[in-house]
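Extended Data, panel c. Modelled sequence:
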Amino acid sequence: MSAGAPAVSGPRRWSGTLARWETLLLIALLGLIVLGNALSPFFLTAGNFSNLIAALMEVAIMALPMTLIIVAGEIDLSVESMAGLACALLGLLYAAGVPLGVAIPLVLLVGGLGGLLNGVLVARVGLPSLVVTLGTLALFRGMALIVLGSRGVSEFPQAFTEFGFGHVPGTLIPWPFVVFLLLAVVLGLVLHQTWLGRQIYAIGKNASTARFSGVRVARARTWLFVLSGFIAALAGIILTARLNTSRADAAQGMTLTVVTVVLLGGVNIFGGRGTIPGVVLAVLTVAVMQNALRLANVTVEVQSIALGSLLILSVVLPTFAHQAKSAVDRVRGGRPPPADSVPHGERAVS
């Protein structure tokens, strides 16, 4: 993240600098819809759109707290393993006869405690979040394997599974999409309309300056990781309901998609910049892309290449845009270009 940059409030940041990036995302989304319709006659159907939304909801839900963490200059790579641990623990408790009304809060509590472990190691001990969450990525997955082993638990109550793959009555809107929208609204308001959001942006721009300004940086970062662990556990519960099965290897590989969605949404990987609306658009863009490729019978390997390319483009394109804007500004101001036209950690779209 760029040192010495002034903190900018959330609303001004996303309504100004990143508004054009979100416009590009919207154009890309519309283009993918046109492409999907050309690839398959089944693409533009209500049932297909319901399916493509439901298929990415666990990733979408985990991407929301990840947005706040990356805006604050950190990252959480352990979310997929926490979702897997939640899935395994829920299956173990249900198989042992624990009612779901008791098991679900316990699983959410474990998710929060796992996030607290990440937060303490990062914010209090001072370890890099990349290293810490890589470690807990393996730790939580190992715990899931110990909890449930190679067996699976299924035959959950109908009301529970109906929440996973059922729809709002009278519509084809999946229930998990409702959860995603509610979380997006709440976290969007927090990030863009409250003093907590302004503190998160300030921490991401320059943690030292934020600390001298009275922001409790360590506490804020700790609670962000707690939130991430809690919501990752919620995503694991929803995944269990949607698949009607609990397995220790659930949610494997989701972290890559979560990070891709967040960066595609315009969030600066070095912190200090990003919006919830951008991430919501990115979720829809990735969901439409994956569904269109699937309907066109594109292999899983090619789909993986497309996702990886999307991740690279989401970092490269804004960087080039920033370089171009800087060059234009220098020409207009009559200043010679510096040796390094992009400050370390800076990524912006004007």
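The first strand starts at residue 153 and ends at 154. This feature is highlighted in the accompanying rendering.
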